[in-house]
Amino acid sequence: xxxxxxxxxxxxxxxxxxxxxxxxxxxxxxxxxxxxxxxxxxxxxxxxxxxxxxxxxxxxxxxxxxxxxxxxxxxxxxxxxxxxxxxxxxxxxxxxxxxxxxxxxxxxxxxxxxxxxxxxxxxxxxxxxxxxxxxxxxxxxxxxxxxxxxxxxxxxxxxxxxxxxxxxxxxxxxxxxxxxxxxxxxxxxxxxxxxxxxx
Amino acid sequence: xxxxxxxxxxxxxxxxxxxxxxxxxxxxxxxxxxxxxxxxxxxxxxxxxxxxxxxxxxxxxxxxxxxxxxxxxxxxxxxxxxxxxxxxxxxxxxxxxxxxxxxxxxxxxxxxxxxxxxxxxxxxxxxxxxxxxxxxxxxxxxxxxxxxxxxxxxxxxxxxxxxxxxxxxxxxxxxxxxxxxxxxxxxxxxxxxxxxxxxxxxxxxxxx
Lengths: 199, 208
Description:
Chain A contains 7 helices and 7 strands. By secondary structure, chain A is of the alpha+beta class. In chain A, a hairpin with a 6-residue loop joins strand 1 and strand 2.
């Protein structure tokens, strides 16, 4: 395998060398991150992806937020917002919210499990190359952490108007953000490239 | 200093980082032999695509900010709010941290992103040699902060889902919402279309 890597930001060629624990390789010219040291990458990625899938199911099936005002109560799940936007015929926004907060995070979780469960067992998943490409594409459009900030802003917005009660799903959603970020941080892409190389 | 991949006659796959000799690209149909992603020496038509997306986003930026984002019905009165009127409301009512979050995420960041991308495009087209490392960092910053502009779209989603209490209180999405969503999506695509390596390619062009 080629032992060189080109900086994705400025194209400078670098020799790939093993890193000490916790080490990060930076581009000598523009400072972009080239690669990082990974501890126990297969086990970690897989464990975090599995945890993420459980959290995803909880976050999507239990009440998310509830509003109480003068004896009236209304509960919402994650999907309620998407459904209401669809009903009000704001289709573009409904689709975008559905993709970025539900569908693409699910795609990411499934892709992680599809790639790393077989690799952990020493096998190469058959569709490794296309799934890995999809995963690289989808990452930028999965925006759960931005949604979380949206929840905080909404809470403050509504605080003077009514009582807002957070549900179980909000906590699961918060945990899912951390777990999914950690799962992606745990990946050692070199392992995937090696698996792709040895077909 | 070591050469760039381009100077060494190599193209890097943006998905799996494999280096492919440029002379072999045509034979593989511009596909990475390792992962099958499409490989080009530089993102194709980077400048033209980025300009087109920046201009389109600039056009949509106006209706996104001028039209109402939400219609709020509260005890029989209906009030329409633009992004800016929401910011001013929070500022006046004393929750200035929230006012600041909405202002930065919804007004300032999209505008900054459009200005930064336009500046980077012009600097590349004018073959600028000025501070390439800083310009690259500026690009990385726009790539990272762009997604946070989605926050207002999510706030509208949550408000619309929760505040459905009949005659008492009712919030509906306004006409600005789809325009605003377009601004965020188009600026994200614009940042992806820009190839920061072009900043550095110009540095090697001393001879021309």
